[in-house]
Amino acid sequence: MSDSTSTSAPEVALIERVQSAPGSGREILDPATGALVGHAPVHSVGDLDDAIERARRAQPGWDALGHAERSALMLKAADAIDEHAEALARLLSREQGKPLNGPNARFELGACSAWLKTSATTILEAEVIIDDGDAHAVLTYKPVGVVGAIGPWNWPLMITIWQIGPALRMGNTVVVKPSEYTPLSVLALLAVLNEVLPADVLIGISGDREVGARLSSHPDIDKIMFTGSTATGRRIIENSAGNLARLTLELGGNDAGIVLPGTDPEAIAGDLFWGAFINTGQTCAALKRLYVHDSIYEEVIAALAAVAGQMPMGPGLDEDNMLGPLQNKQQFDIVSRLVEDAKTHGGRVITGGSPATDLGPLFYPITIVADVTDGVALVDEEQFGPALPVIKYFDVEDAIASANGLDVGLGASVWGSDRDEARRIASRIQSGTVWINSHGGVHPMIPFGGVKSSGYGLEFGVEGLKAVAVPQIING
Predict the structure, then answer these.
(1) For 472-476, which contacts have Cβ atoms below 8 Å and span 24 or more sequence positions?
(2) Half-sphere exposure at residue 226, Cβ-oriented, CA atoms within 13 angstroms
(3) In whole angstroms, what is the distance from residue 303 CA to residue 301 CA?
(4) Which of 95, 108, 180, 250 is catalytic?
């Protein structure tokens, strides 16, 4: 155990900036240790209405600054993230549970800075639609107005930046509602950004579901960006019907991976592992069901298990750990239920298979379950945790049909030594993104979004800027 498990002074200072007054607010506990992290403010619907009004008043002035000045301020805000990165990472680790190292808390803060800088510097050019001597038309993009950003608890800081970066770049103001599970780290991130940004351009509201429902139905909200469950996404669609707010919804997924015959199991094992178990499996576009050809089925399972055996799990502030707990009891119970159900349906547990009670009440070990089939709950339902079903197939046509058989389509992957063949198969999978020989990697300039019940709308790059703007044609 390293000596880095105590709370740092900069982290304490960040918490004190954003938490509620002494004796008030909601307790936020470290999911790894149960220790108190801080007290999150509990804002009311009235507080939200006031925040939206302030954002509405601030928006014209922010838009009037122009792209160049907004970009310059956003770059300074990204520098502020870098200056506070360690304190933010430690707060994130304690509140969300993810370790500091590996593709976890420090990685997430680095992504926040990188994505904000990319949003600040990406150019969205006006497009000449026609100019033939008789007609002249140009397509331009204007800010939507006030954007409501509703974030999740799994990657709370990074996804918040994904939402607010493009929105600010295009001249919108933003009201952010973080998850009730991870409000302190998000509010701290916003406080850091607001050291640079003008007043009321970016406002955080920490509240319950009533506040979230009001945000998505408020008549002065012009755009909602939401990352979370499909069920909540459907409610947001219903709530937003009255004000016709534009929507970008990144909803639940149950990503399939297909390993083709002839693939080297040892060569892909590490990338398979992190594709499935990054953030202890708590990632929307993680690999959640793995279809492996019969000819290499046992070899792939063994290679995955070998990687799993090398990954230390424990409290996030221990510098040695790569995997943390489930963030909350509700998610822990879902994973436990699905694994137990798989056992009753003949699943062969390769690693894990029961709670890691020696580490703490919310720790569940990396669990690989072989010999399950479509129709078993662990295959058909999104587990959102460290449990991966591995399904044997004999004909690639059956694997493609299985990958497409569920009403989700956020991500998928194809693994094989023949990249052209893998791409041909990828083109037949119903998914917003299909990776080749990797899974879940995102890039700030590559559009990302889902199909079917995994939502709609694109984020990142030029398409992400268009998503938080309204088109205008200058005709004549």
Answers:
(1) 472/139, 472/140, 472/141, 472/142, 473/129, 473/137, 473/138, 473/139, 473/140, 474/137, 474/138, 474/140, 475/135, 475/136, 475/137, 476/136, 476/137
(2) 27
(3) 6
(4) 250
CA angle at 192 for the pair 191 and 197, rounded to the nearest 5°: 85
The distance in angstroms from the start CA to the end CA of the chain is 70
Distance between CA 307 and CA 299 in Å, rounded?
A: 13
Closest CA to 155 of 250, 26, 38, 261: 250
- What's this model's pTM, rounded to 2 decimal places? 0.96
pLDDT at 279: 98
CATH 3.40.605.10 domain locations along the chain: 9-251+454-475
Give yes or no for a contact between 14 and 191, defined as CB atoms under 8 angstroms apart: yes
pLDDT tens-place string over residues 261-283: 999 999 999 999 999 999 999 99
Q: What is the mean pLDDT of the chain?
A: 96
The architecture CATH gives domain 255-443:
3-Layer(aba) Sandwich (3.40)
Is residue 250 part of the annotated active site? The answer reads yes
Residues of the chain with pLDDT under 50: 1-3
Instruction: Give CA–CA dist 175/173, Å, rounded.
Output: 7
Q: Which CATH superfamily is domain 9-251+454-475 in?
A: Aldehyde Dehydrogenase; Chain A, domain 1 (3.40.605.10)
Residues in the chain: 476
> Which two three-digit tokens encode residue 1?
């155990």
